[in-house]
Amino acid sequence: GAGVSQTPSNKVTEKGKYVELRCDPISGHTALYWYRQSLGQGPEFLIYFQGTGAADDSGLPNDRFFAVRPEGSVSTLKIQRTERGDSAVYLCASRTSSDEQFFGPGTRLTVL
Amino acid sequence: AQSVTQLDSQVPVFEEAPVELRCNYSSSVSVYLFWYVQYPNQGLQLLLKYLSGSTLVKGINGFEAEFNKSQTSFHLRKPSVHISDTAEYFCAVSVLSGGYNKLIFGAGTRLAVHP
């Protein structure tokens, strides 16, 4: 596709469950970012990948959050033992060597 | 640490009126500045960006912004708004750190255009 895609678009889960959120970046984009947008707030940086490696994971809130990008393209954000406070829209963005980040539509996660 | 402050959480305006959405940033290093728009249930779309050069930047949909280094501001303006401009607008600063850029966003300004 032409843009960044994210699946699922919506995810409802119960407290304590495990979830995976997927991001397909624009083909050829080596840089990939995850952000979290809570209600009424701007996106907050979670993690940055350059190729397959996580160059900066300083935004991950705790060790329940983990992300991978094994082949340098698709990335998966994994959340263990979900809590109600994890409810948010999770945004993925990718970038070439330019400075513009292209955002996907996001995954709305609701933890009941 | 870098931060972005959007001074207005909501801005109501009538159609065809001018609008200014305010943004101030703090950073001890050179920055790149961005404005993104988010329509309901959609992802973020880049409106415009300042990297260097002319301090007046023109973007899509008739928006423009002016970088003011002395006031650390990057306010967004449009001379005449349309109903379709109703959306959430985010100002962001990109800081080069460790060889890559990371975006830091403000809390957003909800622009509501009324007929």
Overview of the structural elements:
The complex is a heterodimer of chains A (112) and B (115). Chain A is an all-beta fold and 112 residues long. Chain A is built from no helices and 11 strands. In chain A, strands 2, 4, 5, 6, 9, 10 and 11 form a 7-stranded mixed sheet that branches. A 4-stranded antiparallel sheet of chain A has the order 1-3-8-7, with no helix packed on it. Chain A is globular. The N and C termini of chain A lie far apart (33 Å). The mean pLDDT of chain A is 93. With 115 residues, chain B is mainly β. Chain B is 0% helix and 57% strand. Chain B has strands at 3-5, 10-14, 19-21, 24-26, 31-38, 44-50, 56-58, 64-68, 73-78, 87-97, 100-105, 109-114. In chain B, the strands form 3 sheets. In chain B, strands 2, 5, 6, 10, 11 and 12 form a 6-stranded mixed sheet that branches. In chain B, strands 3-9-8-7 form a 4-stranded antiparallel sheet, with no helix packed on it. A two-stranded antiparallel sheet of chain B has the order 1-4. In chain B, a hairpin with a 2-residue loop joins strand 10 and strand 11 (100-105). Chain B is globular, with a radius of gyration of 14 Å. The N and C termini of chain B lie far apart (41 Å). The model of chain B has no long low-confidence stretch (mean pLDDT 91). Classes of the chains: A mainly beta (112), B mainly beta (115). Chain A binds chain B through residues 4, 31, 33, 35, 40-45, 48, 50, 55-56, 91, 93, 95, 99-106, and chain B through 4, 6, 32, 36, 41-46, 49, 51, 90, 92, 94, 98, 100-108.
Summing up helix and strand content along with how strands pair, one would put the structural category of chain A as mainly beta
**What general form of chain B does the structure show?**
globular
Instruction: Provide the helix percentage of chain B.
Output: under 10%
Could you list the spans of chain A in which at least 5 consecutive residues all have pLDDT below 50? none
How would you state the average pLDDT of chain B, rounded? 91
Number of DSSP-assigned strands of chain A: 11
Task: Report the span from N to C terminus of chain B.
Answer: 41 Å
> What is the number of beta strands of chain B?
12
Q: Give the topology string of chain B: H per helix, E per strand.
A: EEEEEEEEEEEE
Shape summary of chain A? globular
Helix count, DSSP H or I runs of 4 or more residues of chain B: 0
The fraction of residues assigned to DSSP E strands of chain B is over 45%
Largest interface: A-B, 25 and 25 residues
Structure class of chain B = mainly beta
Taken as a percent bin, the fraction of beta residues of chain A is over 45%
- The share of residues in helices of chain A is under 10%
Elements of chain A, N to C (H/E):
EEEEEEEEEEE
CA(first)-CA(last) distance of chain A: 33 Å
